[in-house]
Amino acid sequence: MPNIANYVFNNVSAQLTPLEAFLDPFTHAELDEIGVGAGWTCLDLGAGGGSITNRLCELVGPDGRVTAVDQDTHMLTPQPNVDIHTQDMSKDEPLPVAGPFELIHARLLTHHLPNRRELVHRLAGTLKPGGWLLLGEFVLSEPYVVTAPTEKDAGLFRRVLAALYEVGRRHGVHQEWGNEIHATMLDAGLTSVRTRWHSEAWTGGEAGSRLLSNNVSQKREQIIETGISGDEVDTFTEVLMRDPRMVTRSHLFCSIRGRRSA
Ligand SMILES: C[S@@+](CC[C@H](N)C(=O)[O-])C[C@H]1O[C@@H](n2cnc3c(N)ncnc32)[C@H](O)[C@@H]1O
Hints:
Strand order of the largest sheet: 3-2-1-4-5-10-7
Number of strands: 10
Bound molecules: S-adenosylmethionine
Distance between the termini: 42 Å
CATH superfamily: Vaccinia Virus protein VP39
Largest sheet: 7 strands, mixed
Low-confidence stretches: none
């Protein structure tokens, strides 16, 4: 599987499909409010499974253009109005297309990047006058169990989630970065800056729990290194995350948008 940027996960549909099921409604609402329309020029950074790239292609139509960038582009679908580029955004290289763009979108990308703050400034300067920057990130929240078959199950959920977050931290994921984006957009001179947070309950067997199960499976060895046993990891992925009696609070997603002055 290509992964040229030492990204913490591998792009697989078992991860990206449930992720998109959780997040796409929030992002679609933002795109509708922004008014992305026919003929727009858009950039989707860290495009992943391509659900938002595809949405943008529909919205801009044949007279518009979408550029999709990811360090691993194997899940992106070629279309007449999309240009797909493989690029490691942690390197301060020029964007594959100079712009300017009417919309730049990046969801769950910048918290992986050491150059995240500079990138926001750079992207702000790549917008057309009146153009929008829309970013989305998970921000750290306390693992929370709504209801579980037993208190032991609830405790195991909290320990495995804490271990998953620790593995992310060790890998350089900036888990508080989402809370700093609003101020960073203001510093970058953007206007109409607005942040929304989203969270919901995730039930065992449903999309969110499948996402957690995949994330934990991908990081199994590193989670065991933090002190969780292999049997406990298996109970988490094979039992708890499939049990409809297990209901937990989702990751906390924040969506931040800002606009370059017209
Ligand atoms: C959690 S996925 C999100 C995918 C998509 N944006 C979404 O929200 O559905 C993170 C994406 O960022 C990409 N990514 C991570 N680090 C990157 C880097 N340094 N350069 C380019 N893409 C990167 C990954 O390959 C992956 O597709």
